[in-house]
Design a protein that fits this description.
single chain; 264 residues; mainly beta; Immunoglobulin-like; Jelly Rolls; 2 domains; 1 helix; 10% helix; rod-shaped
């Protein structure tokens, strides 16, 4: 029994220094916090990165980094620096990269302390992405710019999605949960019959989220918000209301407002 008690005492004495060592190791590492002024912005907009380094390291610098998933293979790359003030705080305004990008702030080792990094923050920088000549298209690419320049209600159209002469055809584009708006100008090509009539639809995944009756001689601007996080793809389709006359449905200059993951 005495031997057992002695063994427990020895284990306890060994655990206490180990715990103290772990606390000392934790205390010897820089702690870095990060706050960004905005997480969803238009491409080209500046974002303020601010936070605090603890223990304070007056006059030293922290590195603002983004996570590169392409060049060099999955690594953090430094794009700017900020100077640490006497109270440990820092702030720096930078222009965010296009698309969806993860950022962090990193403090290199110094003054006997190990390096430390802030939690990462995802910033989405949106820009308009054309839907013609796009590598996002899943199927139906033959309906994009298929006839050469078009004319809709007397207006020349160079880039578009268009059906066959019976309003047949469908195309789908990937959004990968990063697009939050879609725009296009919808009408009938002037080659359509005077009495042509059709229905144009936009689908978000399997759901119809927009439906428009289209007649010759009109152009309807479509400005459709998308449920970004829950929309993986969008589809254009159309249907002739009179199969006996030529009807070419056109969605001119289709584009989506997206923040695709950075790839360069």
């Amino acid at each position: 029994m005495r031997t057992f008690i002695a063994l427990l005492s020895a284990i306890a004495l060994a655990i206490v220094p180990a715990a103290l060592l772990s606390e000392a190791q934790a205390a010897s590492r820089y702690s870095v916090s990060l706050h960004v002024s905005k997480t969803e912005i238009a491409h080209g907009t500046s974002v303020v990165f601010s936070g605090k380094v603890s223990p304070a390291a007056k006059g030293s610098t922290v590195s603002i980094q983004y996570f590169d998933v392409d060049q060099g293979g999955n690594r953090w790359r430094t794009i700017d620096h900020a100077t640490v003030k006497s109270d440990g705080t820092y702030a720096r305004s930078i222009v965010a990269r296009d698309g969806s990008t993860s950022y962090r702030v990193f403090k290199f080792a110094g003054s006997g302390l190990s390096s430390g990094a802030s939690p990462s923050v995802l910033i989405r920088a949106y820009s308009w992405q054309t839907m013609y000549f796009s590598d996002l298209i899943r199927y139906g690419e033959q309906y994009v710019d298929q006839y050469g320049p078009q004319t809709v209600a007397g207006v020349p159209v160079e880039h578009y999605w268009a059906t066959t002469s019976t309003a047949a055809g469908a195309s789908r584009w990937s959004t990968t949960g990063t697009c939050k708006r879609l725009r296009a100008d919808v009408g009938l090509d002037d080659r359509s019959d005077a009495g042509a009539d059709s229905q144009f639809r936009i689908h978000a995944d399997a759901d119809v989220v927009y439906s428009l009756r289209v007649k010759k001689g009109t152009i309807v601007p479509v400005d459709l918000p998308l449920d970004r996080a829950n929309t993986i793809s969008v589809k254009f389709s159309a249907e002739a209301r009179n199969d006996l006359v030529p009807v070419y449905v056109v969605a001119a200059n289709p584009r989506m407002y997206c923040a695709f993951p950075e790839d360069d």
